[in-house]
Amino acid sequence: MKSKKLSAAFVIAILTIFATASITPQAFADQGKSKCSLKAGCKYSSDKGREGNLSCKVFKKAHFLKENQAEIGLSDEQVDQIIDIKFALKKDLVMKKAEIEVVKLDIKRSVYERTVDVEAVNDLIDQKYAIKSEKSKATVQALADIKNILTDDQYEAMKSIWKNKKSKK
Q1: Model's pTM, two decimal places?
Q2: Is there a single domain that holds both residue 66 and residue 11?
Q3: 10 and 55: one domain?
Q4: Residue 158 DSSP label
Q5: Same domain, 104 and 155
Q6: Cα 136 to the chain's mean position, in Å?
Q7: Please, which residues have CB within 8 angstroms of residue 94's CB and are 6 or more apart in sequence?
Q8: What are the phi and psi torsion angles at 29 (to 5°)?
Q9: Using CA of residue 155, residue 156, residue 157, residue 159, what is the dihedral sign?
Q10: In this predicted model, what pLDDT tens digit does every residue of 115-135 receive, in sequence order?
């Protein structure tokens, strides 16, 4: 009887250790890692997809240009245009993210029905990915618009400063 209690206690202890060991790495896996460590607004692009990284690039570029305005030779008007593009993109991404969430809820609700209207759900899925496509296209357009604000000399100065800062790290 005593050995069965010890065996049961031993098994419980081992299971507890294994359960703790398997949960702990998952709990700390994403700490300290982010797609964009810059404070320039990447929190609005926390999507797990590629457009998250691309929009982060737009926000980094806008921040970098603003911080290095004098070295690059940007006018105040050019910086204002870049900031306008950045905030317009942020607003657009927030709105599109909300639209996607609404469509996802519609999809979930549709599949909970006793009989699933597959055509309707397929249309919602198409709608969801159409919005994601719009997000990506808007992000690429914003990046192109920012680059088009710069003259050739400013663009080369930006690249040079970026390389120098990267090599110092």
Answers
A1: 0.67
A2: no
A3: no
A4: H
A5: yes
A6: 11
A7: 44
A8: -60, -40
A9: positive
A10: 999 999 999 999 999 999 999
